[in-house]
Amino acid sequence: MAIGATTSVKDAGKAVLDKSKIWKVIGASSAGTLIEWYDFYIFGSLATIISAQFFPKGHETVALLSTLATFATGFIVRPFGALVFGRVGDVVGRKYAFMVTLLIMGLATTAIGLLPGYETIGILAPILLLVLRLLQGLALGGEYGGAATYVAEHSPDGKRGFYTSFIQTTATLGLFVSLGVILLTRLTMGEEAFKDWGWRIPFLLSVVLVLVSYLIRRKMQESPVFVQMKAEGKSSKSPLRDSFLHPENRRLVILALLGATAGQGVVWYTGQFYALYYLQTVLKVDFVVANQIIAVALLFATPFFVVFGGLSDRIGRKNIMMAGCLIAALTYYPIYQAMEFYSGWNPADPMATAVNPNVMMLTVLVFIQVIYVTMVYGPIAAFLVELFPTQIRYTSMSLPYHIGNGVFGGLVPFIGTAIVASTGNHFAGLIYPISIALMTFAIGMIFIKEDRNVRWH
Q1: Of the spans 217-221, 227-231, 236-240, 249-253, which averages the highest pLDDT?
Q2: 142-153 pLDDT, tens per residue?
Q3: Highest mean pLDDT: which of 129-133, 275-279, 325-329?
């Protein structure tokens, strides 16, 4: 039997409550979304190595910043992917949109693994790398909104935060899998071979993962809520116009961005990506050790996405997300001071490799940051899908999500690293995420009026 709900309008409402099918829907949706996140994040996880492959040698800091800027373009273009595929998802269907995004992501990621370096094709190497990174961003811009909407539209009232939280785990699990594959490849091959050509293997592996996910997703059927809406003739002919030109909906889009996803985005990328770059580039912790610290912290913190997603069904999404933003903003500075203390980094010789880092304490400090991530990210999918009506849900929720995460959040590693490089103050990079998190907390607390008994409208 195909995964998903039946296409009968009469049975659509019952299908939403069919728990036996919900887990199949979650499994199929999550598998594809996890692979897309894996594809998207192996670039960032390998930034320090990619910088040496695709940019001129002799200017390591400039090369790293150029790589991080290329990495950031994938985030910046995500809102455009949200607009393009959001419209497709609201007009044609949720399933069709995220089938297309999966294939685009897989092809772009595999192509990066085959791309010649700077020494072979010169300036064409970073240009082609940028093009492929933009394709990755476009694909991810369309993927997340479709997967979150698809799962939410199969979920019963009162359980939407719990069920959609499994989709929320895929971003962190995708990062975890990318780190795992990178570490396994690096430890198997040795440092020199990995830096020379072995770094390509995690990218090339994508073609296998995408093929498996595509075959799984082919069995999925359309969301029952979407089917019912189409059958009743209530679908939007112009989701972009209805989402952003209608005053009330435009207000909700802006509120979702500034009062929720902007802060959620910076907390996510500070706690996971900036922490990794900080360990590697500022504290000079060994590449393998730094990746192991992040991977272990992610592994132990990931279940809390489901914990906070389920808790949001009982006490509200807003309370948990705003608490996560505020606590993160207030504690980042002392956490990063503690990371410096336990790293073994010597301020008198800042370019020297850290000696005898306290791996356990560093892992605990990153784990705490990832707990903040689970607080702001676990409930966000349910919050966004409940904010907008069915006929424009995919488009409306995707844009603020991808601006918040792709622009505000995705720029955290680049802005933080650039500030540290220009000022020499390695704590100055925290100014940006702390400011955005506090802004989101203030706007969210004042302007978000959450109805805990919200129903589809």
Answers
A1: 249-253
A2: 877 778 888 888
A3: 325-329
Give Cβ neighbours of residue 435 (< 8 Å, ≥ 6 apart): none
251: which residues sit within 8 A by CB, 6+ positions away? Answer: none
End-to-end CA separation in angstroms for the chain? 30
Predicted confidence (pLDDT) at residue 234 exceeds the cutoff of 80: no
String of DSSP letters for 90-104: HHT-HHHHHHHHHHH
Distance between CA atoms of 46 and 201, rounded to whole angstroms?
12
- Burial zone of 254 (CB within 10 Å; 0-12 exposed, 13-18 middle, 19+ buried): middle
Average pLDDT over residues 367-378: 97
Is 435 a residue whose pLDDT tops 80? yes
Sign of CA dihedral 357, 359, 360, 362: positive
What six digits make up the tokens of 20?
């036996």
Q: What are phi and psi of 245, to 5 degrees?
A: -105, -25
Q: Is-contact 135 70, C-beta < 8 A?
A: no
Q: What are phi and psi of 3, to 5 degrees?
A: -75, 135
Highest mean pLDDT among 71-75, 232-236, 374-378: 374-378
Long-range contacts of 60-65 (CB under 8 A, 24+ apart): 61/421, 64/281, 64/417, 65/414, 65/417, 65/418, 65/421
C-beta separation of 66 from 191 below 8 A: no
In degrees and rounded to multiples of 5, residue 2 shows phi and psi of -65, 145
Q: In whole angstroms, give the CA distance from residue 181 to residue 185.
A: 6
Give the pLDDT of residue 87.
Answer: 83
Percent of the chain scored above 70 by pLDDT?
Answer: 92
> pLDDT tens, 56-70?
776 667 777 777 777
Distance of CA 45 to the CA centre of its chain: 13
Q: How far is CA 412 from CA 139, 184, 321, 359, 407, in A?
A: 21, 27, 19, 24, 9
Q: Which residues of 425-457 are buried (b: 16+ CB within 10 A; e: fewer)?
A: ebbebbbbbbebbbbbbbbbeeebebeeeeeee
Q: What is the pLDDT of residue 1?
A: 30
CB atoms within 10 A of CB 28: 22
Question: What are the structure tokens assigned to 288, written together?
Answer: 């393998």
Does residue 84 contact residue 414 with C-beta atoms inside 8 Å?
Answer: no
CA 370, 372, 375, 378 torsion-angle sign: negative
